Proton-conducting transporter membrane subunit (Mesorhizobium montanum), 665 residues
Amino acid sequence: MMPVELLAAAAIVWVAAAFIALLGAGRILARALLVLGGLAAIVAALLSLPEGTASLTVPTSLGGGPILFRMTPDALWLMGFGLAPAVLAAALATPASKGEGGWLFGTAVSLLGALGVFGLQDGAAFLIAWEVMSFGGAMMILSERLSAAKGRSVLFMLALLEVGAVALLLAFLLLGIPGDSLSFDGFAHAGASFGGGWQALVGVLCLIGFGAKLGVLPFYEWFPAAYGSGSGASGAVLSSVVLNAAFFGLSRALIGWLPASTPAVGIVVVAAGTLSAVLAILYAFQQEDWRGLLSFSSAENASIAVATLGASVMFRADGQMQLAGLAWTVALLHLAGHSLAKGALFLAADAVFRSARSYDIAHTDLLRRSAWPFGLGALFAAMSLAAMPPQAGFVSEWYVFQTIFQGFHLSTLGDRLVLAIAGAGLALTAAVAFATFVKVLGIGLLGRTSRRVSAISGGTAAAVALLGLCVIALAAGLPAWLPALDRSAADMFGVHTPLAMHVGWVLVPGTGAPIAPDRSFAFISPSLLVIAMPILSLIPLAMLAATRRFPVRRAPVWYGGLTQDPERASTTGLTFSNALRTFYAFIYRPTLTTTRETNGQPYFIRRLVFTHDVAPIFGPYLFSPLVRFVRFLAGKISRIQSGHLNFYLALIGALLVVILALTLI
């Protein structure tokens, strides 16, 4: 089958899965169809790269015009890597089996919406697909019933996503009015004719619209509550293919629809992405729930990609096409590795829930009690998100810094300072991310406990192991993967940057023509690291084997004269993150509360209840005032519903007078 036919088959299969799941019968069949459609789409992406797909006319019309569907190489790249964890999440049973049918329906709808976002070439159809994708995510979370407050968190998510949808609608109207068309080809012509002010306005509207799903500030504040109300399977879908679809939309808007954008657009995007990344990872470090921590981490990684995309806009506005292509390519590499690693850890979170009946980041000792492939996959995923070599996250973040450091090529001092400050912010982000995933792996999986914890199922262990191996395979095989993006880079920037980003199996920044690694600004080779690091590990293994000749003396730990209890004296998530919480108290504004429960006598305490939290930044100062304002308006407008017939007749009469007046004018 041709790639376009495979994508059409995937869409049909997902529609069938949605109907079957909605009817509540044949859930195994619906799950199988979800997986089958995902595999078909991945195969289509592999067959279509690096050229992209041919145009396909959708057999329906919207507004009297045809609807075209075509996927560019960058869309196929983001979709393919995003679908890998989504397919595995769909293949595994969710922890909330009671809502399985609704979850399958929501997943199928989300995948259909994401496919439309990746391929539709018309503004009206795109907005429908965008809303369908949001609706599917809400259905996934609501159907799982894992949180009593799921309704409130989903409404908060949908409210912020609708703010983004309105911003996108305004941007589409501004781009469609000059050419009297909502086709994306017309958007590019309209964007090229805009002045600097109009380009900045459209760019900010697109940043708000797509940033609502990417978690750009202030929108990342819906992430922990919404993700925390669903399972890890829902998080794997939302943080992979859905997140990648949102980034593709932003990339297409800033690079494709605004081909002559001013540096101001890039500066705004870089600033928003950098500040979002810093705040998101700071709050991720304080989370004690797997889903909340990983959701903030998703916002952080998406924001890093957004900041890199903003650097691409700045380089292009300055005429540095090679560097613009480099920054754009790096953003795609970063999201590819993030999709695989984050999907693995979200599935690991579900494994923790099934074993310990809680998503808390607490001592479970699961790595010792489970099959070694599970531990290997989780380790590789955590290493990647912590930017440790030789994983994909290390390679992409190395490229991010190499790109930002090229800011000295920009012609103005202000632009150079923007990228220098962004580099400092991203460095802080990388440092806190390292500590965050040390906490996840060290406490959440390695921590010893005497509690009874069941072993992880073979299917979940295999899925986590497969995604972990894909993370390191992406890094090691990156020289072979990079040519897949060359066509898109050539079409958008007129350069072949992906081909200049490696010399053989050595990766270089790709700032110009391919050169010898020893003359490059910097170079790494994850392919060689994958070979060298196991060999180097033989040294400590040999030292460990040598120590077996000597007896090991073990001394008990002093517990202040109390009975020894290693589990109670071990490091917890709170103690691990408390130092940073104290240092950044001006951001966190931490709260500590201790409540005493008694039998009525103040001197006989039954229990002490200790609670701690960090205060959100935008909630009390932005969202809460808006909520109060909306409720105030609703209270005033509700008076219209008086129930008096004469009042309603008066309103109808006034409306007729207005219509007649407009007609006479």
Summary: The mean pLDDT is 88. The first strand starts at residue 56 and ends at 62.
